[in-house]
Design a protein that fits this description.
Two copies of one chain form a homodimer. Chain A is mostly helical and 228 residues long. Chain A is built from eight helices and four strands. In chain A, strands 1-3-2 form a three-stranded antiparallel sheet. Chains A and B meet through helix 1, helix 4, strand 4, helix 5 and helix 6 of A and helix 1, helix 4, strand 4, helix 5 and helix 6 of B. Chain B binds a DNA duplex (30 and 30 nucleotides) through helix 2, helix 3 and strand 3.
Chain lengths: 228, 228
DNA sequence: AGAACCTACTCCAAGTTGGAGTAGACACCC
DNA sequence: GGGTGTCTACTCCAACTTGGAGTAGGTTCT
């Protein structure tokens, strides 16, 4: 019955698709849209790879596909199987979460800012602010829907809220950081050869304090759990 | 002389390598290490792809490689060319920064937490705290070096500080979010079917406030720039 | 009637990953 | 002196993933 022994384990993207399919059935096109607007901010995938991922769920026995006729062409609707629902649950139950992976070219450009001038750095900060603000604007209507008791899947509002809370904090943090960089940049003659400044020293000291507190806190809670 | 017209543009990873090579010459092995410990938290790449990226810099005329003999085998030392330094500067000067790309499975698991139980969600939060704390521990000695006036490239301390400031804020935010999730989770009977709670409503309202403020602030500064 | 956008995908070259594999060098411990 | 382990210094590869282009029917607006 099961080919589990010969099939390789689904990827996280495939399991996420199974998660969405556990909520309801979707067409392939809807699924790509949902992956983008719902979870794209913490698990971005290209359209192309989503379409191929869905296809692979079927021979693995995790989902079923059926063709629907729409005028002159067809679209594919996917439905999760019991094995698929199982797979999604076992993902959350039996596997360890992978480490966060962050790719922010803006921070990289700040790190290497002395290769160009202060104006170029300012432009990067402005571009980043614009990009982040665009993202925030796109999310606002969804948030407002939820705030007024609407939104899709109201029984899942508690999970959506935690999700949005993360995203809001992340984008808020990027914007704050842009401001901090610009304020510090204003105290420099240019980007190159400045060395340690009062502001930079302050940031390092703050970072050390944050780090130490976090590490100590972690050791405490680990002790408690070990002792109990 | 230049094959720029037939060669495709370097990738961001290659340009980052050129950025590091603009500081000094490095061996291939040192470069992979540097990419990991210095910028890996905002631009993570696998060893394998870094080695192939370096190799490609040479035929493009952006770097030069020479073999050094170390006992019974060789290692490769790279040096940037004028064209390479130029390429790095034009990257910062003439191209727009790409959008942040974040991949945090922990947030995804929270979003789909109703597929499993509260214990599974708690385990994910604990794992995430452990992962993040490990990262912070690894960075602490570097931070302490800089705080005491040491550290590599002291003339670049101002840029390193901004970089570290970003990372500290990011990891701090993740830890805070874990605490928020756990506090909210404590008020639920289980993960499924809870719907909107007081805490969730608060998070949504806060997120809306943050978003609105950010969008308004952006429009204001854009106006100023447009008016001036 | 035409333009523009939405639906519903497919294709592909090129980039990228993660894990395994190879081997020399150096340290340490019994 | 022999074993174990860790660090240096990479290479190889199958599989995964991206981003952009391409195709084509459907709907909406003007």
């Amino acid at each position: 019955m099961s080919k589990r022994t010969t099939t390789r384990a689904p990827t996280t993207s495939q399991r996420t698709l199974l998660g969405l399919l556990s909520l309801q059935s979707w067409t392939a096109y809807e699924l790509t849209r949902q992956m983008r607007v719902a979870v794209g901010r913490v698990w971005p995938r290209s359209e192309a790879s989503l379409y191929t991922d869905m296809k692979r769920l079927v021979p693995a026995g995790l989902a079923e596909a059926e063709e629907e006729e729409v005028g002159d062409r067809t679209r594919t609707r996917y439905e999760v199987t019991d094995a698929g629902r199982d797979e999604a649950t076992r993902w959350l139950r039996d596997t360890e979460v992978s480490e966060p992976r962050v790719q922010i070219e803006a921070v990289l450009r700040v790190f290497l800012a002395d290769l160009a001038g202060a104006d170029d750095l300012r432009r990067t900060l402005d571009d980043t602010r614009r990009q982040v603000t665009r993202q925030l604007e796109a999310v606002l209507p969804i948030l407002e829907d939820y705030a007024s008791g609407g939104g899709t899947f109201p029984e899942r509002a508690h999970l959506n809220a935690l999700f949005m809370h993360y995203c809001a904090g992340f984008f808020g943090h990027v914007l704050e950081w842009c401001d901090d960089v610009e304020a510090e940049l204003d105290t420099w003659p240019d980007t190159a050869g400045v060395g340690m400044t009062a502001g930079a020293q302050q940031m390092i000291d703050d970072a050390i304090a944050t780090h130490r507190r976090a590490v100590e806190r972690y050791l405490e809670t680990a002790d408690e759990e070990g002792a109990s």
